[in-house]
């Protein structure tokens, strides 16, 4: 992306050339009207040069040299260049997302099992799939693993088999293996791996064994001695609605035979336990939902957050229940404690299975203190002379934002005093004493449409201050959450400025479906800016050039199906040099372009600060921000239906099974390959087969594979390096993906 340095405007028809470290041309092109040129087919792994030889070396500078040439309106030719490793301050690791800058595409492999719980002497059937992750979805790897390795976890005993890959009717690749478990096989878990057959290793390996072979862990099965259960059951509260401050919990128990029918007159014992629960929501991972610290917690042994499992308590112990003729029973769990924080209710039902085993079924429910959930997000530290910015949050019990919820934030200072005491024998110990001081309510109000309450508060008490957020539902129930911030005294701040050029890009919501419009707020420090907006993942998927206004710095993008399961949106915001625009300049040049003069006078003139010998605050500047969004995976899903010709069959009878599949657009999934397994339902009661969830296994969260380089920082010399005060030149920004 080529722009002018003085005004941050795009440069069209600029000739761009990419060279390696020896000056050899790799690619070239011309920028479009947006100043962008897209060059494909360049290896992300640049050749390395050590300056001593023309031969390729394994060490030295590994970067591309990219140059741009263009003529201005007066016909004067200008030049700009950038190295692809000029990214100080905007390195990918600074944005707190998973990154992958390896030259080879990331791969994902998975194994489907007919069953994952077996006995010694039985045979396990497997089907293997492997794909590369691309910007359009999936691709096929050039080299495929040729060896299947089964490893017993614990002893390390291994079994190997060759893997024969074949092409499917729709152009995919898969392989099948069967493994006859030895009669004397060790019990326990067996790890399944796919390894390359030639033993070669590459820098982009996902996993490596001791010989440097590329390896993919694709699944696991267990070999055990067991008896198939005759009964199956469930235990759950009678009411399906959330449990908000219940005094008692009526509970249903249902036990059925796996073959059908209720377990009549079966004696069952029901127990209940209440324990702590830790809340987390993927869309609000930076918020704290932890309860406040207990007032009597000692400074020596208490953590900043309450331990979720330290105060588990049994509230019902083996309550007897006899099931009716339909295999159903009811029992009421009394004296359910009330708490200010969410708790977990564990229900267990124990009964004797006809196979001779004692079976236990369980379920977990959440005990909510209110029908809303409170959360808080704050900075880690501040000073008594600064205002602390923090956010209070209100969610419903499903984790969705709630508007118009009353929120209040109270601050409590915790001061710990330590003194050393001498003990008998010349030993010393420390005596810690914690004092609390209530600083009162520092913020209150109602949540907005995003469920947020934005707060600014001044904390005059130094030390560790706990911010406690309270949210009230429509019934008057209260939910609380807390987080701590450290407040330093004035004059004791030794923290320096951060050495990065990062800004925050906040999506309106974290998850979108294809076809929806995603909106992003760009928190830039500029009143106006030219921005390059890019959708990225394995590479640069698409780009847009927009003008941002500080009054409403938002960007809107239409979400596309190929962005699933997640995508990254980056915003590179540029601001040109601020200039002094006096009122009398209207008579020299402003009358020729009144609109441009008014914008320069009203905007640049107000922000202009004259440069000094120490600092130039009006020089060109840039910032880079990144946001991640989740995208629905409907575009990758086949709607599969399995039907049989009869509801029941005799032993050794034949079943006619019909399988139908439809693509997301409703068309038949012609040529799709089917893996069919017939498994005893009683076996799945002991251990469910998670390998069947192919969509979730293949569509994992993908890493960010793009890095950004710019020449602007080298020119303006922000951190005292590079040439300063050079004449007006073009700027150059490079976006590359692996």
Provide an overview of this structure.
This protein has 738 residues and is mostly beta strands. Among the domains are: 2-86 and 711-737, no CATH class; 231-368, Immunoglobulin-like; 372-488, Immunoglobulin-like (Sandwich); 502-632, Immunoglobulin-like (Sandwich), CATH 2.60.40. It is 4% helix and 45% strand. The chain is built from 4 helices and 46 strands. Strands 35, 36, 37, 38, 39, 40, 41 and 42 form an 8-stranded mixed β-sheet that branches. Strands 9, 12, 13, 16, 17 and 18 form a 6-stranded mixed β-sheet that branches. A hairpin with a 5-residue loop joins strand 33 (463-472) and strand 34. The two termini are 18 Å apart. Residues 198-212, 298-309, 491-497 and 719-728 have low confidence and may be disordered.
Helix content: under 10%
Structural class, by secondary structure, is: mainly beta
Mean pLDDT, to the nearest integer, reads 85
Low-confidence stretches: 198-212, 298-309, 491-497, 719-728
Largest sheet: 8 strands, mixed
- From the N-terminal CA to the C-terminal CA, the straight-line distance is 18 Å
Number of strands: 46
**DSSP strand content:** 35-45%
Identify the overall geometry: globular
The CATH level-2 architecture of the domain at 231-368 is identified as Sandwich
Please tally the helical runs, counting DSSP H or I stretches of 4 or more residues: 4
Radius of gyration: 32 Å
CATH first level of the domain at 231-368: which class? Mainly Beta
What fold name goes in the CATH topology slot of the domain at 231-368?
Answer: Immunoglobulin-like
